[in-house]
Every structure is written in C-alpha cells, then in structure tokens.
C-alpha cells in the first residue's frame, strides 16, 4: 500500500461517507503491514484472489478493507482487524442495497464491468465471513451468519454455473474466469464450514454449484504470462464439473473412479466439502444417531475414492509448506473429520462460539460413545484419528505449541477436536466393556499404531506433573493421553481465538474423562 493507493482508496470511500461517519481508517503503514500479512501467510490458504494480476487500485474498497482486516488478525491486532471488518461490512452491505435498488450511485468502480464488480463483492463478503468464523465471539460469528444472504445474492447474481470457455490466449481474461470459479467454490466450502463448526443448516447445496473444478496450482501460481502459457500448454483436458465429479465419488458400482484430469488440490478440497455436506444431510434424515449400515458402506467407499483421487493428484502433499500450497494438507485434516462424522456426530454438542470452555467440555462428555464395531469403516476412522495425532508428535509438540506451525486458523483444530473425542471415547468404551480380548486383528493394529505415537509423544513435550508412565498401561489411559496431547498442542495463544477455546475445552474434558475413569 502506497500513499497514492491509500488516497485512491479514500476517494472511493467518499460515496459511502455517510455510512462511515464514525470510522477512521488506519495509516498507510498499518495497511501495508496488514496486507503483507494476508499475502504472505493467508492467501495460500484462501486461493480465490489471483495475486499475480491483482491491482489494489482496481479493487472495490470493501475487498481491500476485508483483506487488510484478515491480515491484521494474523498479526494479533484485533482492534484494527475489527475496525476494518466493520468498515468493510458496512460498505459491502450498502453497495448491495444500492445494487438491488438499481440506483445509479451503485455503478461499479471505474474500469470494472458489472460482473467483475459483483464477483469482487462476493470475494469481499467471503473474506469477512472467514474472519468472523474463527473469532470464538458469539456476536461476530452471528455477523458471519448475517452475511450469508448478501453473499448468496452476489453468487446468484453472477450465476452458479460457468458457461465461458477458458481462454488460452489472454491471461487477464483467464484469471478473471478462474477467480469466478474459485470464489464461488470457496464460498460453498466456507458456508459448509459453518455447518461443520456451528451445526448451521446448509445455505448452498452441492448440486447447485455447477462449476468446473479449480485449475492446477501451476496455472494459478504463474507470476508472468509466459509461465501461465507454458502451464496451459500442459492442460490436455479442462477440469471436470463439481457435481459430476462428486457423483463419481459416490458411485456404488464398486470401482474407483478414474478422474481425468486429476483434480487440483483445491478441487479435491471442494469435493471433500461436498462429501461432508452429504454426510450431514444423511444424518439429518437418520432415525437414530447410528447410520444405517448401507449408508456407512456408501460413505466409506466415497471417502476411500476421494483418498485415492488425492493420492493420484501430482500436486498433493502432506507437507504444509509444500510449494504447491497447504490446501492438500488441510484436506487430509478434514478427511479425518469426515471419517469420524460417519460414526459419531459431535457437531450438535459443541457450541464453540456460544459456550465457555467448561460448558463445551461438559457437552462433549455427553456425546454418546461410539459402538465398538469390527468394520473397515470404523477402523479407518480410528486410523485417521491416530494419523492426525501423529503429525504434531512427529514435528515436535513443543515446536507446534509455540509456533502453531502447521495449524492455520480453525480447520485443523476442528478436525483434531473431533478425532480426539472420537478416539478417546472408543478407547473408553473398550476399557469399560473389557472388550480388548474380543478385538480383531485390525483393531489390535489400531492400538499398536497408537502406542507408537504415544511413546514418541512422551519425549516430545514437557509434561510437568502429568504422569505419562501410565499412558501405555491400558486402553483407558491411552484415551486420556490422546486428550492430554491435543490439549497441549492447542494450549498456547493463537491469532485465531477459537483454536485457544478448543485447547481449553479439551483440557477440561480430559480432567472429566480422568475423573470418570476413577469410578470404573
């Protein structure tokens, strides 16, 4: 952000001066710091803004304010973040109100056509929703829900299908077309995260999003037109459409779908959100908390198909710092959550933004323990839960605690919470039922894998007064260890408050779990 660009932003804000009467914008230096934080650390997690062709002078002001608000929170500057958030929200809602009235004052920023202005409005609203979603503040989360309607207005105004052929000649036209796809796809994903995190009913259904899946990372990351042209030359076929691809994953013909071309990391991420929504909808019509066996088989097969597709994607990686970005890594965290949701629906019990940690812990204690089932699907959910735990242990628990190096925002902490609760409740159920003797070979393998992770975890952190010598004693203490480790991982401060709330809730829930065990 330069002084000239700040002046340009301020001039654009003049038409909204009545709405912004009580808001004073930060300095040029603060804007620069906040926008840099967004670009350097958050843009790769939210790849719907095309940085190589981004020009701040061509952006509507609420988009600039929203990006800066997100960056300010990443810098722990909550006061500045909230100021920018409310300024951006005020302008975004006013622009949409004027657009709806077809008021001449609602003409888009000079240089933008109406369609581009609408998609920028959608991007601004989506960015504001991202910020509010992870606040752990009930009022701000409610504001995120309030933005559903204006966001849906923008998406439907521009259309939830893409009819344009991708250009192989004009980089800027291609970037605009791909930005449309990614903004709408990421809007679907974040609206679905509201369902996952807060048990909010779906606002946008997968079958409505009739878009091509997002392009490859190499195309999106190309910094110059010639690099983009080289990347486009390698594209034999354009990406498949989202509904078609999701139906292929859900196919019950017993064959793993051969998707050509393989989806990009972001494409896989969008598909996984489609499967998560499918799990949610099946649970809504289920008569009991336990899904029908035929539903479990179909969902397990779909998740297995997704995992195979993820592995076939050349840009996939389990390294959060991979050059292709962290989306593939984040997807695996959500895959574990999806497997857990097939067997245990924790969502309605949490109330993450509306309860104190002690209340959340008490609610988690009331979640029914999963039935001890000797099935492939149940074993998969357990192994993915152990895999989630193994990541911070392998990297180093203390390192993760003090840097939050692998956990951006809330998606990883959400997945970790559900995996921790599921795994600990399964271990508790085994201990309470004295069911260790009846385990099959797969479940014995689950305990073997968990013992290896717990053994490494003992030396990976400073556990203080916690008696880690008991952790490997039996299934009950292994469950307690799982909760202690996860609560330690999320015990330190984070730019994203909901992560801290999850850590505190798990710590209290671990105490409850331990006290229950004393009565066994």
Automatic annotation (TrEMBL):
InterPro entries: VerF-like (IPR051059), XnlR_reg_dom (IPR007219)
Gene Ontology MF terms in the entry: DNA-binding transcription factor activity, RNA polymerase II-specific; RNA polymerase II cis-regulatory region sequence-specific DNA binding; zinc ion binding
GO cellular component, one term: nucleus
GO terms under biological process: DNA-templated transcription
Superkingdom of origin organism: Eukaryota
Pfam families: Fungal_trans
Domain Xylanolytic transcriptional activator regulatory: 43-307
Major localisation: nucleus
Keyword terms of this UniProt record: Metal-binding, Nucleus, Repeat, Zinc, Zinc-finger
Organism: Microdochium trichocladiopsis
Protein name: Xylanolytic transcriptional activator regulatory domain-containing protein
Residue runs in coiled coils: none
Subcellular localization(s) per the UniProt record: Nucleus
């Amino acid at each position: 952000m330069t002084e000239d660009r700040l002046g340009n932003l301020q001039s654009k804000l003049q038409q909204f001066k009545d709405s912004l009467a009580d808001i004073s914008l930060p300095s040029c230096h603060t804007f620069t710091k906040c926008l840099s934080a967004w670009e350097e650390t958050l843009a790769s997690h939210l790849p719907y803004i095309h940085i190589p062709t981004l020009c701040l002078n061509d952006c509507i002001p609420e988009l600039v304010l929203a990006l800066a608000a997100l960056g300010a929170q990443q810098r722990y500057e909550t006061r500045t973040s909230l100021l920018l958030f409310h300024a951006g929200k005020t302008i975004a809602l006013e622009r949409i109100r004027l657009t709806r009235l077809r008021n001449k004052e609602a003409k888009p920023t000079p240089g933008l056509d109406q369609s581009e202005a609408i998609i920028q409005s959608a991007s601004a609203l989506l960015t504001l929703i991202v910020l509010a979603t992870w606040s752990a503040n009930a009022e701000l989360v409610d504001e995120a829900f309030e933005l559903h309607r204006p966001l849906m207005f923008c998406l439907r105004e521009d259309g939830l299908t893409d009819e344009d052929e991708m250009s192989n000649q004009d980089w800027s036209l291609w970037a605009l077309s791909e930005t449309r796809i990614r903004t709408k796809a990421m809007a679907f994903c974040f609206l679905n995260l509201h369902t996952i995190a807060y048990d909010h009913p779906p606002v946008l259904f997968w079958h409505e999003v009739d878009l091509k899946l997002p392009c490859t990372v190499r195309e999106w990351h190309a910094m110059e037109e010639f690099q983009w042209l080289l990347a486009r030359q390698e594209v034999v076929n354009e990406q498949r459409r989202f509904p078609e691809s999701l139906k292929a994953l859900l196919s019950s013909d017993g064959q793993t779908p051969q998707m050509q071309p393989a989806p990009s990391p972001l494409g896989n991420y969008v598909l996984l959100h489609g499967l998560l929504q499918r799990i949610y909808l099946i649970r809504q019509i289920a008569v009991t908390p336990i899904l029908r066996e035929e539903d479990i088989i179909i969902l397990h097969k779909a998740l297995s198909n997704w995992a195979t597709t993820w592995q076939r994607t050349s840009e996939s990686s389990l390294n959060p710092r991979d050059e292709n970005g962290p989306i593939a890594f984040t997807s695996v965290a959500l895959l574990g959550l999806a497997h857990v949701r097939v067997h245990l629906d924790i969502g309605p019990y949490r109330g993450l933004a509306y309860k104190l940690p002690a209340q959340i812990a008490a609610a988690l204690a009331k979640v029914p323990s999963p039935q001890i089932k000797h099935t492939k699907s149940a074993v998969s959910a357990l192994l993915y839960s152990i895999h989630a735990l193994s990541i911070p242990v392998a990297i180093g628990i203390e390192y993760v605690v003090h840097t939050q190096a692998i956990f951006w925002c809330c998606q990883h902490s959400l997945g970790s919470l559900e995996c921790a609760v599921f795994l600990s409740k399964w271990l508790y159920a085994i201990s309470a039922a004295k069911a260790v003797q009846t385990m099959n070979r797969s479940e014995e393998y689950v305990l073997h894998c968990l013992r290896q992770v717990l053994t490494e975890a003992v030396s990976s952190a400073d556990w203080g007064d916690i008696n880690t010598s008991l952790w490997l004693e039996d299934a009950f203490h292994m469950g307690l260890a799982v909760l202690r480790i996860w609560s330690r991982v999320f015990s330190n401060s984070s730019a994203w408050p909901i992560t801290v709330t999850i850590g505190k809730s798990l710590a209290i829930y671990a105490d409850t779990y331990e006290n229950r065990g004393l009565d066994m």
